């Protein structure tokens, strides 16, 4: 059976072409990549590519990878797809936040009989924290005419999006940050109204001092968080720990301890910039022999699996990330040309990290 492994790989590639995962003009995985994916020898992978080239399905130029023949375009004229300039899909980890955005995109597109293509170059560049997106631009410009537009992660810089827009004349949706380029929609989270309403609720529950563990990022919701934290410091008993997640853990614990000491005799609630930071805060409070929520309350952000699948369950601002993907896909599918910022409201979900203190037990 081993000698027929190359045909099995060839059939897999043909199946991807039929379903639209690989389109005319697109580069197929290299022989080295195929060898790793299918756990076969390099020679077997090369044989599979040469076999498809011999059938006219793939084309190969000296020194370059194989690409899907553009002769197949005539058989796929009715096929349309959108392209995701997005982070790599992860099969592990605690949050899966990006995966759920992608799920919302692909499901909404599938309902409209439209395919989804994840840009390998964009995913790899984001994953490796690189700043050179030239390969992403090259890939975007090589896509066939069935591409209806692009959905971009907030990491993709404006200069790349502008070049893609100018050269393809296709619409773009950015998720996570506000983009002011023409032909670009922005889909962002809006936490400010919920934060402001939550503050009133926490004060009625007996909390009268606040600590903000901030994260620095260019995502819209993080910038909105910063606005709320600034408001707290101006109007309430509040202290901010800036870039909490950027300092060593022993320093985080020291900063947290100092902020808590400044509010002796007051009932403290801690706002964390993410669920992962909230979990770290809870661990460090335990190390300081402080109980959550009996002594100090904690509020997370995003409502990921880190919030819901560990004990204690986080009280947090929450959103369904599939909604972001759904809205982004709809904007391309429906051809909405009123390019603007689409703000998605967040909600507050009570968990086990906020504690209602009876009025007669409060220290006003």
What's a quick, concise take on this entry?
The protein is an alpha/beta fold. Helices cover 41% and strands 18% of the residues.
Descriptors:
364 residues; alpha/beta; Arc Repressor Mutant, subunit A; Rossmann fold; 3 domains; 6-stranded parallel β-sheet; 6-stranded mixed β-sheet; 13 helices; 41% helix; 18% strand; elongated
For the record, give the distance between the C-alpha atoms at the N and C termini, rounded to a whole number. Answer: 79 Å
* Spans where pLDDT lies below 50 across 5 or more residues: none
Radius of gyration: 25 Å
If helices are DSSP runs of H or I spanning 4 or more residues, what is the number of helices?
13
* Mean pLDDT across residues: 89
User: What is the CATH top level name of the largest domain?
Assistant: Alpha Beta
Q: Give me the count of strands.
A: 14
Helicity level: 40-55%
**Major β-sheet profile:** 6 strands, parallel
| CATH homology group of the largest domain | Response regulator
CATH architecture of the largest domain: 3-Layer(aba) Sandwich
Order of helices and strands: HHHEEEHEHHEHEEHEHEHEHEHEHEE
Q: Spatial order of the strands in the main sheet? A: 4-3-5-6-7-13
Number of domains: 3
CATH domain fold name of the largest domain:
Rossmann fold
Outline = elongated
Structural class: alpha/beta
**Portion in beta strands:** 15-25%
